[in-house]
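Margin note from the TA: students keep mixing up input and output lines. Inputs are the sequences; the output is the structure of the whole complex. Example:
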Amino acid sequence: MLLDKSTAGARWHLRPDGMEKVTGRLRYLTDLKAPGMLYGKVLRSAMPHAQLVSIRTARAEALAGVHAVLTHKDVPGLNRFGIVIPDQPVLCEDRVRYVGDAIAAVAAESPEIAAYALSLIEVDYVPLPVVDSPDAALRAEAPMLHPQGNVLHRTHYARGDVEKAFHACAYVVEATYRTPRQMHGYMETEGGLFSWDADGRLTVQAATQHGYKDRMQLSRILAVPEERIRVISSPIGGSFGGKDELNVQPYGALLALRTGKPVKIHHTRRESVRAGLKRHPMEVTMKTGIDADGKLVAHSVRIIADTGAYATLGAPVLNFATEHAMGPYRMDHVLVEGRSVFTNNGVSGEFRGFGGNQVIFALESQLDRLAAQSGIPPWELRRRNLRQPTDPGPLGNTVMPTDGAAQVWQEIQTSKLWQAAESEGGEKHVPGRPWLRLGFGAAMAMHGSGLGYGIPDPGGGRLGLNAEGKLEAAFSFEEFGQGIMATLEIMLMELFGCDAEDLHLMIGDTDKAPHSGSSTASRSTTIAHLTLSELHPKLTAAMLVAAAEASGHDAACLVTGRGGIWLEDGEGPIISYRELAARTSGSLCYEAAVHFPVTPDPVTGAHFLYTCTAAAVRVEVDTRSGTVRVLEQAHAVAAGPVVNPMGYIGQIEGGASMALGYTLMEDAVMEEACYRTENLDTYMLPTIADSQATFRIHAIEELPPGDPYGPRGIGEVGSVALAPAITAAIYRATGRRIDRLPVRREDLIMRLAGQTGGEETL
Amino acid sequence: MVLPGLPEKLPHVALPRGVQEAWQLKRSLGERAVYSGGGTLLRTQWENQVQPVPFQLIALDRLKMLRGIHVSDGGMVEVGAMSTLNECIADPLLTRSAPQLIQALRQIAAPAVRNLATLGGNVCSWSGDVLPALLALDAEVSVYAEGKQLRLPLDAWLNTSTRDPHALLCRIYVPPAADGAEDGLSLAMYAKVGRRQAFTASLVTVAVAGRFTKNGTVRGIRIVAGGGGAAAQRLTAAENLLEGGQLSKERLFAVSDAIRNQYQAASDAFAGAEYRAEAAANLVAAHLWQIKDFKAP
C-alpha cells in the first residue's frame, strides 16, 4: 500500500507532542533550571593517548564562583561506565585514550566561570604513540590500549566450505568497502539537570534510551542503591542510539552530590562532537561467487570495525554486522570473520542500523558487481537468491517466518519510480547539458529487531484507570522524536475505542513506570503491542464488571468507548471513566512483564523477528563538479501492520535522510585521532535542500497467517538500504563504482572534453 | 592565551557615529580592535579559535552613511557596505543590474545568517563568495583610509600591497548591466559548488562576465574563480584566449586547460586543489559551450 496522508485516512493522527515541538514551546530536559543551580563542565583530554602524570586543581578551586572541582579521587564507587563492559573511566586516573576522555569536572556559578576554571586545571601528560586506525592497532608493535589487547571482540561464522566453493563459481567478485564515522547529529546535545533531595535521593533529568540502565550504572558509580536514584529521561531532542550510553550523567550526579546544589550540564556542539559516540567506521572485504545461473554459492566476509577507545556496545554492533552480512539471501557456503578493534579515535557505539548499514552497503554492492559481470540484471539476480518464508535466519537460527524479502522485492519493482526508469529504456542524458548523467538504482535488506539471543531483553508496562478517571498507560520508554507517544496513543484509542482525552501516558520516569527495557533496537512497538495485548483484556473486563454493578446492565452488553463505558448500541456513555474511577478508587491497575521474542536456538546475537526493506532511487550526477543529487526515492517496507501512518512515514523519511547524509556527505574526519570536523560548520548534515526528492513509501502490512507478534518497529530499517541504492544509481549514471562512503566528488568529476550526451558531444 | 569566556573577557563595543571616528578608533587600537558588520563571520572565527576575541569591537551599526542602495552617478548601483545580504537580494536595482551577484548572495550561508551578514563583511573576509561575482562585474569600492575617502576598482583595492590596515570599506559600486540584444548575448554567470546543496562553505566559485556579440566574437570577458580559503582570482590566461575571438570547441578545451593551470585553488581535508581547479575549468567551459552555437539573427 502506498502510505501517505490520503491512504491513511482517519488514522492520520497528529502526534501529541507535535505542536509544542514545532512552535519551540516544548521544554526539553536541557531547558530545565532549578533555584540555586550550578553549571557543570568537564575537562576533556588534550591528547588522544597519554599517561597522566599529575592533575593540579588548586588554581581552579581558588577561582571565585567555583564550588567544586572533582577528579578520579572523588568517585565513590566504580570509576567506570559502559553498558556491556564498564571499561571507560568516569574520570581518568593515569591514562587517557581519546580526546573525549574526562579528567576533571567543575561546578561553578556560570558556564563561563566553569569553562574558565577548566583552563586553570593543570594536567601533565606524557604523550604515548597514537593508534589512529585499526590497521595501526593490529600491528605487532602497537601499544596495548587495554589489558586484553587491542581487539575488543571477534566474530566467526562459517557454514559449508567457501574456499572450495569459490572454485565452482562461474563469477567471483572481491572488493573492500569503507564507511564513514557518522555522527548522530541530534538537535539537542547531551545534558541535563541533577539534584539530590534532603533524604539523599538523586533525581537525574537527562536523556537516555534506557532509564533503568542509567540508574544501574549510576548506582555503581555513586555507590548508592538503585532505589535512591530516579531517572527522568523524556522528552529528548533526538538520540539515534547516541544517548543510550552514559554521557554527562556521572559528572552531574557527582557535582550535585559534592556541592549539595542542583547542577546543570549541557554540552556545546563542540563538546558533544569531542566526547560523543559515532557510528563504527568499518572496512568490509567481501568475496562473493555465483554459479552460471546466478545462484549465490560462496560468500566470504572480513569486517574490521574501528571501535575507538572503549567498549560500550562495540561487541553487539559487530555481532549485528556479522549476522547481516548475508542479507535476505540464500547461500550455502559462508565465512564471516569480524574484529572490533580499539584505537585512540573517538568512541564508536550504538547508531540507528547498528552495524547493518555498513555490511549492507558492501553486500548489495557485491551483488551489483556480480550482475554486471554475469549479465544478469541486478534485480533479477536478487530474485534468484531470495530467502523463502520458512528459511532459517542468516546464522542458521530459527526465525519467525517472513515473506518480507519477496514482498519488498516485488513492491519496489512495481513502484512508479521503477516503472518510469524502465520506460526511459536506459536514457541517461539531459538535452543540452551533456555533463549531467541520470541513473537508477535499487537495493534491499533484512533487519533484525530486538537485542538478539543471549542478551536479556525483557519489557513490560502498566495499564489502569487512574484516580482522575484517565486510562493510564505507563512504560519506561523514552520519546526522542520517534513517535512512541503517538503510537501508544493510537494503540490505546483503537483498543478502547476512546478519545485521546481519555488517556494519560506516562513514560520515561523510573519512579512512575515499570521496566519496559530500552527504547532501542526497533523494539518498543513490539513490546508495547505485546504488553497491551495482555493488559487490555484484563482492564476492560474489570471496568465492564464495575460498570455493570453500577448500572445494572449485563457486563456482556457493555463496551469501552469515548468518555466511558457504553451500551453496545448506545448513544453515549452510561458511566464515565471518571465516575468509574471514583467507584473503584484507583484499584483497577495491572502490570505485565513480557520478553521480546527471541530465537530458540543458542546463537549469540541472532534475531527472531526481521523486517525487510527495498529502496530505489533516481540520481543526477553533475560531472562538472562530481555533485550527486537524489531526485526521487521509493521505499518498500515489510514490517507488519502500520500502527501510526504519520509516524511510520516520519521514521522511514528520517532514516532515509540520515542514510542520504551517510552516503553523500557525513564523516567525522579524524587526523591523528583528533577531530577535523569539530562543529556543524564542517561536519555536513543534509538539509531540506538535499532531501527534496520525491519520496514514496510502500508499506506491506501482511504477516504470515498466525503471526502473534503484530506490528514491528521501523525505527532503523529506513536507514539501512539507501546507500547501496544510491551508489548503484551512480554506477548506472557514470560507470564508476563507489566503494567508499561518503561519495567523493573527486571520484565523479569528469573532464568535459569528449563527453557525449545523446546526440551531443562536448 | 585567550581565556575562554569569563564575563570580563568579553570585548568592549564601540558604536561610532561617523566613518572618521570609526577609523581613528581602529587606528589607535590597532590589532586590539576589530570592525564588526553583522558579526556572523567573527563569531565563527572566535568559536573555531582562528581569531582571538578582540579587546574592542567597533560596531558599524550606527553609521548611516554605510547603508542604503541607490543609483549613483554614471548609472552604477551604489550599495552601502552595511547592507545585509538579504537587503541586497530583495533590492530591485541590484536584481536588475547584477543577477549573478544576487545568485551569489542567495547561496551564502542560511536565511538567518543573511539577515545579519553584510555585503561589506563578505568583501572584507577576502575569501567571501561574493568576491568572484563582484570582480567579474568590475565593481568599484569607496574606502576610508589614511584619513580620507578613496574610490577605486575593487580589484585594485584587494591587490594593493600598501593598503591601510585600518581602512574601512564604505560603499560598493556595481556597474549597470550592459543593455540588451543589439549587442548580442551576455556571458554573465555565477556558480558555486559546496559540500551540500545549501548552507555550505564553497569548495569552488566561478563568475564570468562579458558579451558574445552578434558577429560571433567575445568582448569584455572577465573570468574569476574563488572558493574555500582561496583569494578570488582573475583567470587572465583564459580571458586572453577568449577576448576578441570566436567560440569553438577547441578554444573551450584550451580555456579549460588554461584555467586548470592558472587557478591557485585552496586545499583542505574535504577537497584537494586539483579537484577544485578541474571543477572551475568545467563550470566555465560548460557555460560557454551552452552558448557557443549562438548565432545572431
